[in-house]
Design brief:
CATH class of the largest domain: Alpha Beta
Strand content: 15-25%
Distance between the termini: 39 Å
Number of helices: 16
Helix content: 40-55%
Largest sheet: 15 strands, mixed
Radius of gyration: 23 Å
Number of strands: 17
CATH superfamily of the largest domain: Endonuclease Chain A
CATH architecture of the largest domain: 2-Layer Sandwich
Length: about 475
């Protein structure tokens, strides 16, 4: 009996291997991702098959995508005109940056708008304090969209502010990712709903939902809009700064508080996501109050995700790096570049651009760390500088090019943000604002250890082996 069982498993394993070769080859456009999946399937055919069915397709699922595209057209007919404001879009930029802006619009980005006041916030407690202060002053509505909204001290503080606002007649809506915010909906979420706050779980993770959808495609955005006139976005979730893997330490994030014309565009991002999840088309004059010039910052908003052009975000990163003449500084918790981004960084170093990478010494994903270190080694061989932040988990996502353009948002420099998750990033153009970004990255660098390439090359052989193995699976991380 055992012999027949072993024989059946062996035969079925080869059937899976041979069947999945054309399936994976036809459906995976990226050769590295294709080979990585085939390697997993050939080593562990049954587990590989299950993993591929759940996680292999870079898709929201056929039914969900069809519904999303249908709703996207309906949403466009109602709301997109609120994001177009000719009176504040006549911003003159360097030719290279105009190319970046036009490319972003082709990949789903909203028009560049000037006249914004943007505050850079790098202290978790200050972000929450100011957010709660703004919620307490809200008169019309509060819209929150977060990947992680936890039922902890910070989540309850923000939740209490939502309840106070709701009880005085403010319309409060919270859209939180089902996986990132798991555990919140039955506790804090239920209390919020009892007090009039609308709480919606985004991208439910039922294995049977929406045929061929990836379970790990998440809404990774962090967004808050108050009265259509104040907006927050960046890398910070609504969660205590120490959570998850305790070895990573306290988390360090970056948010921006935007006041000005671009708040209307961030509002449109929330309204569309709300529409996609609920079918409710929010449409009232208070959502989009008159846009006033509040400052001098020009910024462009780019929502990304598997429902947008698949290479859009990484194309913009590559274009921004190609425009560099003096310096590129990247701050990210996870760094797994694809071949195009890796080549752009190598070429930047070759033409004399200083390339600095500021990464956490230890993140909350050990396998990702191993793959990241492999790519750091490649870039150091070509002259890039790597700094490892040791004072907690550096979760900020920043790109600065030549003190001329900065990118801030929810997206990491990894495969998940390039191809899978729903993200929102901002490209900002303003010398004064860029100065604050430079100061912040300098602070991160001063709290980091610069990696000596000679010492790096002498790290133990088992460590290098693990990094090389992790590299093979990096297209799947």
């Amino acid at each position: 009996m055992l012999i027949w069982l072993a024989f059946a498993l062996d035969i079925s394993g080869w059937v899976i291997r041979l069947t999945m070769i054309p399936v994976v080859a036809m459906r995976q456009k990226n050769a590295a991702t294709c080979l990585a999946w085939l390697a997993v399937i050939f080593v562990m055919p049954w587990l590989g098959l299950i993993a591929y069915l759940l996680l292999g397709e870079q898709s929201l699922g056929f039914l969900r995508v069809r519904k999303r595209m249908r709703r996207h057209k309906a949403f466009d007919a109602i709301h997109r005109h609120h994001a177009i404001m000719p009176e504040v879009d006549h911003v003159r930029l360097h030719r290279d940056h105009e190319t970046l802006i036009h490319l972003a619009e082709r990949h789903g980005g909203l028009p560049l708008l000037g006249g914004n006041r943007v505050d850079l916030l790098a202290d978790t407690d200050e972000v929450v304090r100011r957010l709660i202060q703004d919620i307490d002053q809200a008169r019309s509505h509060v819209h929150l969209l977060f990947y992680i909204f936890r039922d902890d001290q910070m989540g309850r503080m923000v939740g209490d502010a939502l309840i106070r606002a709701s009880l005085r007649g403010v319309h409060c809506r919270l859209l939180a990712d089902m996986v990132g915010s798991r555990g919140m909906f039955s506790g804090l979420g239920a209390r919020l709903q009892e007090n009039g706050v609308q709480v919606v779980a985004g991208l439910t993770a039922n294995p049977l939902r929406m045929r061929l959808a990836r379970l790990d495609v998440r809404n990774h955005r962090k967004l808050a809009i108050i009265d259509g006139s104040i907006a927050y976005t960046g890398s910070q979730n609504i969660v205590d700064p120490v959570f998850g893997h305790s070895k990573a330490g306290a988390w360090h994030d970056v948010m921006v508080r935007v006041v000005g014309p671009s708040t209307r565009q961030l509002q449109s991002v929330f309204v569309e996501d709300w529409y996609q999840e609920t079918g409710e088309a929010l449409d009232c004059p208070s959502l989009y109050p008159p846009a006033l010039t509040e400052g001098a910052v020009a910024l462009q908003i780019l929502p990304t995700g598997p429902d947008q052009p698949i290479d859009g975000f990484q194309d913009l990163l590559i274009q921004a790096i190609h425009s560099a003449r003096r310096k590129v500084v990247i701050t990210s918790p996870y760094f797994i570049p694809n071949e195009g981004l890796l080549t752009a960084l190598r070429l930047a170093v070759s033409r004399g651009v200083v390339v600095d990478l500021i990464l956490p010494r230890r993140s909350d994903h050990p396998l990702v760390d191993l793959a990241s270190y492999h790519y750091c080694g490649i870039l150091m061989e070509h002259g890039a500088h790597v700094y490892l932040f040791g004072d907690g988990m550096l979760h900020a996502k920043l790109l600065r090019v030549d003190d001329a353009v900065a990118m801030i948002g929810s997206a990491n420099f990894d495969i998940r943000s390039f191809y899978l998750n729903l993200e929102v990033v901002l490209f900002l153009f303003d010398q004064e604002f860029l100065y604050t970004v430079r100061q912040l990255q300098s602070q991160y660098r001063s709290r980091s250890e610069k990696v000596d390439p000679n010492i790096w090359n002498r790290r133990p052989w088992p460590r290098r082996l693990l990094e090389s193995i992790a590299k093979v699976f990096s297209p799947l991380l």
